[in-house]
Amino acid sequence: MQYSKFLRYVGPISGFGNKRTKDILKINPTLPFQRKEAEERKICIYDYDTNCFEEKELQSVEETFSFIGNDHITWINIDGLRKQEVETICEHFKVHPLLIEDILSVNQRPKMDEEDGILYCLLNMLYYDDAAQTIEQEQISIVLGQGFVITFQDDNDKDVFNPIREKLKVNASRLRQYKADYLCYSMLDLIVDNYFVVMEKLGERIENLEEEIIQNSEKQSLGDISQLRKELIILKRNIIPVRDLISSLMRSDSELLDKKIIKYFKDIYDHIVQAYDLSENYRDIMINMHDLYINNVNLKMNEAMKVMAIVTCLLAPATVIGGIFGMNFVRIPLLHNKWGFFISVALMLLIPLWMLRMFKKKGWF
């Protein structure tokens, strides 16, 4: 509130508006969720071991049932969620009903659960929309079971798992040598690493905005600062719970996680802690940038006030001289002198020039 007295000078802020604020504040886990059924749905299956690899696109969830129990590692990826299909595949793989609710939920906080021999991770994949200049998020659910991983995503057009798909095609890749827990680790690692891609984009915007504010603080700059601070809220809302998620995996005693693989989660934990520290740095920079903007506005106002004060001082001699000779007295020096007018005008010009020289000498401008 200490800056409120300055805000009246910047006028109304146009730009981002209140839509992003509503997106941030509208989450209420106590209300029943209403997920729309996906119009398009895509089911891909990746079945592999050290010697063979098979990739297929299936038409129904029932076709996935035959891939389990063949001593291979199976990754089932479902893009586009439909309630009946999710319930069907989860019931077949003995996924707890509470976890099914989480899969079908929206705007959930990232978390890790373990129920009935199933390890479940829920988090968001982050993307940066260059056109809208916003951070977009897509909820993903990862179900880890004995010999299989099932992933549920909303968007069937994009994810961050293409490097995994490419590695699975290579016979000598580490993914092909390990079990399903390493596949789960690889997915979480890619999701977290993609956070840095988003943060790099956000960092570029912060750097450009800082240069813009230093060179010329405009009304729109305050709107840009507000927008970036909202994007940082979205970022931190995802990073902090994921840190807890990875920490829970590191402490887990689940038989689904080999002790050798748990060590790999330490690397993800280090990355997510680094991302959190970086987000805190971004937050501090934004606070300093807001102070810089207010200081620039204040400086501009002071410069304007100084110019007006100098102009007022320079006009004061002319005002005094004109007032003296404008008084209604019979006897005024030089009033009837033929050079009186020229002398008074000369004084009106010479005195301000002398004042300008004195102001310059004292370094007032």
Account of the protein in words:
Strands 2-1-3-7-6-5-4 form a seven-stranded mixed sheet, with helices on both faces. The longest helix has 67 residues, at 259-325. It folds into two domains: 4-296, CorA soluble domain-like (Beta Polymerase, domain 2, 2-Layer Sandwich), CATH 3.30.460; 310-361, Methane Monooxygenase Hydroxylase, Chain G, domain 1, CATH 1.20.58. Helices cover 54% and strands 15% of the residues. Helix 8 (219-251) runs antiparallel to helix 9 (259-325). The protein has helices at residues 4-7, 19-25, 83-92, 97-104, 162-168, 174-177, 180-215, 219-251, 259-325, 340-361, and strands spanning 42-48, 53-58, 73-79, 111-115, 118-129, 134-145, 148-153.
Structural class computed from helices and strand pairing:
alpha+beta
Report the mean per-residue pLDDT as an integer.
Answer: 83
Beta-strand content: 15-25%
- Overall shape: it is rod-shaped
Largest sheet: 7 strands, mixed
Radius of gyration: 34 Å
Spatial order of strands in the largest sheet = 2-1-3-7-6-5-4
* Tally of contiguous helical segments: 10
List descriptors.
365 residues, alpha+beta, Beta Polymerase, domain 2, Methane Monooxygenase Hydroxylase, Chain G, domain 1, 2 domains, 7 strands
